[in-house]
Amino acid sequence: MQQIELNERKTKILNAIIRNYLETGEPVGSRTISKYTDLNLSSATIRNEMADLEELGYIVQPHTSAGRIPSDKGYRFYVDHLMEDKNREVNEMKQFVIEHTEKMEQILQQVAKVLATNTNYATMVSSPSYHRNKVKFIQLSLVDEDQLLAVIVTQSNLVKNKIINLSETIDNETLLKLNFLLNSNLNGLALEEINLATIAKLKEQAGMHGDIVSEVLDTVAETMGADEDIRIYTSGTTNLFKYPELSDSAEKASELISTFEEKRQLASLVTENLLNEESTGIQVYIGNESPIQTMKDCSVVTATYELGEGVRGTIGIVGPKRMDYEKVMDNLKVLKNSLDGILSKTRD
Amino acid sequence: MQQIELNERKTKILNAIIRNYLETGEPVGSRTISKYTDLNLSSATIRNEMADLEELGYIVQPHTSAGRIPSDKGYRFYVDHLMEDKNREVNEMKQFVIEHTEKMEQILQQVAKVLATNTNYATMVSSPSYHRNKVKFIQLSLVDEDQLLAVIVTQSNLVKNKIINLSETIDNETLLKLNFLLNSNLNGLALEEINLATIAKLKEQAGMHGDIVSEVLDTVAETMGADEDIRIYTSGTTNLFKYPELSDSAEKASELISTFEEKRQLASLVTENLLNEESTGIQVYIGNESPIQTMKDCSVVTATYELGEGVRGTIGIVGPKRMDYEKVMDNLKVLKNSLDGILSKTRD
DNA sequence: TGTTAGCACTCATTTAAATGGAGTGCTAAC
DNA sequence: GTTAGCACTCCATTTAAATGAGTGCTAACA
User: pTM of the prediction?
Assistant: First the structure.
């Protein structure tokens, strides 16, 4: 559809404008374009075309007699049609990092960091939400006369535990029974499948120990419900200082960095993102397209990774609108690939 | 000793200067002091005294013909001798927060946040290091044909788990034996007490399953060694933007905030702090007294909390040198008290 | 001997004006 | 359809002047 609006020459000029602006961050004028492209057109001609492009909404003038900068629509066109999809080689360093870090948390933090160092933007990585994950194993053990330890393992090897304080003592035999009861009833079930009927049945069978069952179920829900418990790892937020358009006023910078510190808002963005099941997994939010108000001057690029079936999280990069989209996407792809299926990998 | 250097009048003037500067952040001149104190001295007299105070190193002039601001030495004198030690009432809000948050992590993050909101400075809270903590309970269970789950509980109810991949299968009886072996040998021991002899003995008794014992021991070490694994929760870093002397140049601000993001450096500060066993638990680092270079224009106030015996962490506040030391210390004390012994509290 | 008024001086900050230059829109000619 | 040329706009930077807070010093006073 946009093809109708823009002929080839206009497209070329728009492309040149955006690329130049991505590099310099300064409004670009007609003369620059005429000089540094192989179009062989005079600045005057370029000016005419630029006037058209402005009227069509692809570029704007920050003020009279300044050069042009891309509008959100311009960036969008660039991302959708102009950008080259280089599929560069995997950066071994990243592989290394991932293969040599042990714990999930550390991996994610590391990913955020690598990404930030690589791109010079701010990054965020959300902990996976364990959607549709299933219970594999439950165990209650007595660690003290009055304390019970509940351990829950999911099929993707996520482990959670909780200490339950007992009001009355409990003997070993009962404990065995409870363990059996829980395992036989819950194993193999996803959170959504644990319905009221199951719960009622369980409680009934547990008899006087219904309280304990309740607590265990809470922990199960917590382990797998997850949504509320999404963690966000961020890195490189101070990179944003490098882009004057984001940090010229202390207030602006402060607001933006606060958003990263708060994380709550980021979490909402991430959740929204996870719901978009389709797509190659890479999403681009330009300026106001982003659901987070404070990021109206930024672009956000996110990718969804999937550690195991149903265990998904998001990696995201936040930078100025004139970010190096190609590089950013490449990086995201690489890291996404490294993360995909990592849970199954650790098995061997 | 300083009492010899400073007579009462000088002390009063110094006090007035510092208090005024804490409020305004502007260099304070002789006229201001003469006007807004009950000393009833003319500005000229004050000027003479100020000249003396400057010579003694308590205050400095940022440039000729500017007012005076406190030097590090001045702040130090203030903190050590001048400051009032108001012991204000406990803020119920904080109590509420702590009593209603469940998980340790969340508590700590919450503490950081409350503190930041309350003081308008940047805050950090370190996760407790489990020094001298003892093993209470160990359990191995088979969660899959080829996967073993090791759960370790310490006396302060810290739980850690690890999935161990098996090379050969293992039958239930052996598992029971291993469990018994581990518990009978390790329970009640602190990390330092698990020496080579114990380990050798354990491995010997485990026979062909020495590998598993090794892995379990690793996890134990990890659970209690802790030092490497100190987590730092931060909040309110963007508060630092409120103080021009810290954020006038984007570079400065960026550096400082980076330090908070990195956390590695904070961790080192925290560790150093924990080693200072003595003291009421409140430490003040003014300017260059801080071991972190990027904080040379800041003051750092820290308190040590102790969740249970040997389970200690640090709460810290970072702000401009002209921070409201009284308020900061009060807040720290309150939160420290709330945290102290919290692990034992959850028992009832 | 300690205190104070007064004055000349310093220097960061604010305000205003001057300058330079990048870039545009438009027109007329090719 | 393309281009050269020119008048015009507006931002950014420089330059200069005005302001004002604050000091140090001296001389006079109690």
Answer: 0.78
